[in-house]
Prior knowledge:
The chain is α+β, with helices and mostly antiparallel strands. Strand 22 (322-326) and strand 23 (333-337) form a beta hairpin.
Amino acid sequence: xxxxxxxxxxxxxxxxxxxxxxxxxxxxxxxxxxxxxxxxxxxxxxxxxxxxxxxxxxxxxxxxxxxxxxxxxxxxxxxxxxxxxxxxxxxxxxxxxxxxxxxxxxxxxxxxxxxxxxxxxxxxxxxxxxxxxxxxxxxxxxxxxxxxxxxxxxxxxxxxxxxxxxxxxxxxxxxxxxxxxxxxxxxxxxxxxxxxxxxxxxxxxxxxxxxxxxxxxxxxxxxxxxxxxxxxxxxxxxxxxxxxxxxxxxxxxxxxxxxxxxxxxxxxxxxxxxxxxxxxxxxxxxxxxxxxxxxxxxxxxxxxxxxxxxxxxxxxxxxxxxxxxxxxxxxxxxxxxxxxxxxxxxxxxxxxxxxxxxxxxxxxxxxxxxxxxxx
Length: 375
């Protein structure tokens, strides 16, 4: 097993990030003062109402609670509009709001799933291109009964082989993952992790509408978790790491009991569900937001570069290079960029997607260069 040593850390900016020497020299280029730990708080349970069949163009009232998020599953193109106390909003095209992941051990989904930030929404209307019905799950991740006390967040993302400083790092306990969702009524884990050597890193955006100024990113992480785990029946969240607009990084997919995200003790990654048929050996990092016409915040971009550099160092990758990827589970693969956007996987057989956004995707080349420069 590889020894655990500090490989990467940052002080106040990109230029302050330094690598530790093999002999164990300090990884910090400058001293930092950790913020005082937040006061203990209880996390709200996620409220959910599932409606399996709604006719196109039906105006639906939210009876049980106001919404924070709305998940729509359709067999065709769809659009939604939302009602708040101010009245009805405009139509939102859901085709560009879907990231489109899937588990490797299942066939590609024929339906389209989209998650929309819908804070304080009291009603909605969904319209499909062909008039077909939709399935909708109404979510509230903010106002449910108080659950367990949240775990403490830190400023450091630690793996079994390295560490980097961030504005914040939140484990599953810190952002409020309801771990009971991952288990059947008889206690069986719905999606036990399998572990693979890391070959590539894939960048996503969540594609969520009304999301770039999200006042409660941890609540949105809980919504993404519920949507992946329950609505799409993965059994867990599909991404290994998530990054919000403030640059905070969130632990995603469960990866064992060693206390570190992404990897097991042998520095193999836990399988995810973020690029259909191409997940094994492929770490998924998703930025919360929709970057079709706008860029991520500088804080989100900086954290992404640091995370890519750390993962590349731990996994022995060149973030500016290419990889002959091969999925050891299904034999699919091809030549890919070692760090690439979700849409780039379509070149070797993955389903088409707008992810990670028309505005953001062309900047990945500079992100690769910046990550490589940290190494």
